[in-house]
Each structure stands twice: as structure tokens, then as C-alpha cells.
């Protein structure tokens, strides 16, 4: 009986040891995950602060330029890229990261981009890495770059948008004065150049910059305008007794005067025409006209769609579908090739940057001649073209040939 109890006790001790080891392993993994998460969070926060500083500096550069050359502000800054981030990013080889960080006074960045340590070691610009918020790692570890500099910077670009379209603002009535060649103010926006970059859609900076001279000419209340308001009168200084006259020096013949070239009046830029509809979808006629089917196997269909607005319509996505018929392999809209590839009966094309012209424009869809059995490609089919515009409004043109 005593032997049985001792074997039970030995078995219980072994189970307790295994359980304790498993719990210890879980605890170690949890600590490692926490440390990695903390490091990533600190790096992400530093990047966001860095981008915020770069965007603020760019806004101040736009503001300073507006005071010296207002007329060229949009030309000089619209679409300009704001680079943020360093060319090199910290990367340590397989050696553990238990070495100390290098103090600022222990290294020098040379003019050619190389790094020299106080102990005499030197690294070329491609053999070490440096982060704006962290020092290089040392301790016998050779440092290396993480990414190609151009690829690293591409995802971090911010873009400047100088907006002079009054229709894009909630209240843009005072943006333009009649006959003016430049607006009274611009809406300035700095945002990521790519939604797939490091910052995605997390950063967006907006402000307004005004041309005080244009506002005065537009008749802003309380602003002095020299073209309409006379300057205030001033009391002339008291007269004084002139000094005694002296014999004038010998006069010389002045050089002949030259006729200045005739002045030319610049042609004012016409004021942009306001958009006639509340949304872009309202401007597109949903009824297709001029429908024709051609080709040796009746595989090509052409038709006309009408933009009723006097302005172009910005399109961000187009969806093409053939129901109950064949499959298409080519699509062209307003002389722009949208698709040319394998046959399919439905496809959506996103992230487009195209503008539908004002008035009538032609759409051409070419189908695979053998994709509808023993029928022609469009026999019994329904053709659908759905347009999505930059204001997120949508309209569908559909018909049966």
C-alpha cells in the first residue's frame, strides 16, 4: 500500500513540472510580443511626428511664397511632393541587439554621407543605417541598409494640393472676383500621395491662404483700396527761409531721351464656369444612342453616351458587364483604352484618373466571337456600363443591342 502512494506522488510531481514549464514558455512568448509591439509603436509614432513636422514646414513655405508671387503660387506648388523620412533605416544583422546605443559625441557624419567613429572605424554611406530619432548600433556589429532609398521614400511622400475650384468648397462664393486672373484665396491641402504607403490616409493637413491685395480690389469691408478711396490729406510742413543763392555749376547737356516700349495689357483669365448640377451623375445621360453592331461575327458594338454638362466629369471607376451573352475582351471609352485582355463577362476598373469630355463621346466594346455558343456575341445580351465619379455618385448606362 505504501509503494502505491509513492508512485502516485512521483507521477504528480512530473505532471506539475511539465505544467510549470509550459506556463513559463507562454510567459516568455508574451513578454517578447509585448517588447516587439512597444518597439513598433514607438517607431510609428516617431514617423508620424516627423511627417507632421515636414508638412508644417511645407505649409509655411507656401505661405511665404504667396507674399512674393501670388500669381505663380498654384504653378509652383500644386502637385509638389513633400519628402519625409531618412534614406537609411536601422537594420542590425543576426547578432543580438544587446549592444549599447552610440552616444551623439562618439560619431561624425561626413559630407560624403559616410560615418566615422571616434575609435577610428569608418562606414560608407551604404554600409551603415541611421534613423532620425535613433542612434546607430555598435559593438562589433556591421550595420547595413534596409531598403533602396528611392523605394523607401516612395511610400512616405506627401503631396501639396493648391485648390482654386470654388465648387469643391462648402462656401466658395468669395474665392473669385469678376474678371480676376487669380483667386482671392486658395485652399491648401497636404495629404499622402498614395493610400498604400506608410501613412495611408492617416494624415491630412488643410488651411487657407488669402491674397490681401485681391480681397481689397474685390471690395472687402474695412480694407483700403487705392483705386477707389483717396488717401487721407496731410498738413504740409511749415515753410522755411531758403538759403542764400549760389552760382550754379556749369550745366551739361543731358543724354537724349529714349521712347519706352509700348505697354501691353495682359489678357485676364476667364472665371471658371460653375458646375450646373448638384452631383456629377446627374450630368450623364443614362440612355445610349447611335448603337451599331459590326464585325465578321457581329462581335463589335459601338454606342454614344452624352455628358450634358459644359464641363468634364472626373471618373474614378468603371464597371463593364454583359449579361446573358458573350464575354468581352476590349473596352474603349472616349478614345481611352480601359481594358484589353482575357475574355470576361464582368470586370470593374478602379483607381482611374480620367475625365469624360463635355457633349457626346463614343464607347466601344469588343467581344470574344466564340463566347456565346452558336449565337453571335451580343445576341440576347444586355450591356451595362456603370460610372463612379470623384464625388462618389454613380450612374449606369444599360441597353440590349
Shape: flat
Low-confidence stretches: 86-102, 130-155, 218-226
Question: What structural class should be given to the helix and strand makeup?
Answer: alpha+beta
Beta-strand percentage?
15-25%
- Mean pLDDT over the residues: 74
Task: Note the gap between the termini.
Answer: 95 Å
**What is the helix fraction of residues, given as a range?**
10-25%
What's the total helix number? 4
Number of strands: 17
Major sheet:
5 strands, antiparallel
Cα-atom radius of gyration: 36 Å
| SSE order | HHEEEEHEEEHEEEEEEEEEE
- The strand order across the widest sheet is 8-9-15-11-12
Please describe the topology of this protein.
Elements: H1 2-68, H2 73-77, E1 81-82, E2 107-109, E3 115-117, E4 122-123, H3 149-154, E5 158-163, E6 185-192, E7 205-210, H4 212-217, E8 289-294, E9 300-307, E10 313-323, E11 328-333, E12 336-344, E13 346-349, E14 354-356, E15 359-367, E16 382-389, E17 394-399
Antiparallel strand pairs: 1-5, 2-3, 3-4, 5-6, 6-7, 8-9, 9-15, 10-13, 10-14, 10-16, 11-12, 11-15, 16-17
Throw out a few tags for this protein.
five-stranded antiparallel sheet, alpha+beta, 4 helices, 401 residues
Kindly summarize this structure in a few lines.
The chain has 401 residues and is α+β, with helices and mostly antiparallel strands.
Overview of the molecule:
The chain has 401 residues and is of the alpha+beta class. It contains 4 helices and 17 strands. The protein has helices at residues 2-68, 73-77, 149-154, 212-217, and strands at residues 81-82, 107-109, 115-117, 122-123, 158-163, 185-192, 205-210, 289-294, 300-307, 313-323, 328-333, 336-344, 346-349, 354-356, 359-367, 382-389, 394-399. It has a 5-stranded antiparallel β-sheet with strand order 8-9-15-11-12, with no helix packed on it. Strands 10, 13, 14, 16 and 17 form a 5-stranded antiparallel β-sheet that branches. It is flat, with a radius of gyration of 36 Å. It starts with a helix and ends with a strand.
